[in-house]
Write a structure and sequence with these properties.
Layout: H1 2-8, H2 11-15, H3 19-26, E1 31-32, E2 34-40, E3 43-49, E4 52-56, E5 61-67, H4 72-79, E6 81-86, H5 92-98, E7 111-113, E8 119-121, E9 126-138, E10 141-153, E11 159-162, E12 165-168
Length: 170
C-alpha cells in the first residue's frame, strides 16, 4: 500500500498521462450540470460547470471549479456573490449556451435575481446563492469555496453528463 501512495506523489508519473486518455477515463464518472452566475456592473455573467458539490453541512459550504482563464469566471469572482443553478433534464440547451464563450449568454434565458442579486435561471432544478470564501488555483482551474446563504429546490429530474454527452436522469 505504501508503494502505491508514494507513486502518486511522483509528479512525473502524474504528468505522463495522455490528456485524451485522461479525459476518456474521467468521462466514466457521471456528473450533474450547473450554471454558475453573478450579476456584475456590466450585466449578468455565467458559465456551465460540472465540477460542483457539497463541501460541508455545518457550516453550509459548496465548491466548484472554474477555468481560470475564462471570460466569465474572473468577472463573477470580482463580484464575490455567485449563484449556482442545478439544471433540470429539460435544460440541455441552457447548458450548451453557457458552455460557450461570449457575453450574450443570457439573451432569451429567463432569470430572476436571488436575495443577493445572483441570477437564478428559470426552470432549474435547484438554486443556491452565496459568498465566495476561498479560491485556489490548481492547474488550469480555480477551486472555489462558497458559503451558501440561500437554497431552494424544485421537483424534476437532473441533467447529467456522461461519456462526453448530456443525458436525462429519471
Amino acid at each position: 500500500m505504501l508503494g502505491a501512495c508514494s507513486a502518486l506523489d511522483n509528479l512525473d508519473f502524474v504528468s505522463s498521462i495522455d490528456v485524451a486518455r485522461f479525459r476518456e477515463v474521467l468521462g466514466h464518472f457521471v456528473t450533474g450540470i450547473a450554471v454558475v452566475t453573478a450579476d456584475t456592473p456590466e450585466g449578468p455573467v455565467g458559465f456551465t460547470c460540472q465540477t460542483f458539490g457539497a463541501l460541508s453541512l455545518e457550516p453550509s459550504l459548496i465548491s466548484f471549479s472554474a477555468v481560470s482563464a475564462s471570460n466569465s469566471w474572473p468577472r463573477a469572482r470580482e463580484v464575490g456573490v455567485v449563484g449556482v443553478n442545478i439544471l433540470s433534464s429539460e435544460q440541455e440547451a441552457v447548458a450548451r449556451v453557457f458552455g460557450k464563450p461570449g457575453n450574450a449568454k443570457f439573451a432569451g434565458i429567463g432569470w430572476s435575481p436571488g436575495p443577493s442579486g445572483a441570477p437564478m435561471i428559470d426552470g432549474a432544478l435547484a438554486h443556491l446563492e452565496g459568498r465566495i470564501e476561498f479560491v485556489t488555483t490548481q492547474g488550469d482551474h480555480d477551486i472555489v469555496v462558497v458559503a451558501a446563504e440561500y437554497v431552494v429546490s424544485h421537483h424534476g429530474a437532473p441533467l447529467v453528463f456522461y461519456r462526453g454527452g448530456f443525458r436525462g436522469f429519471d
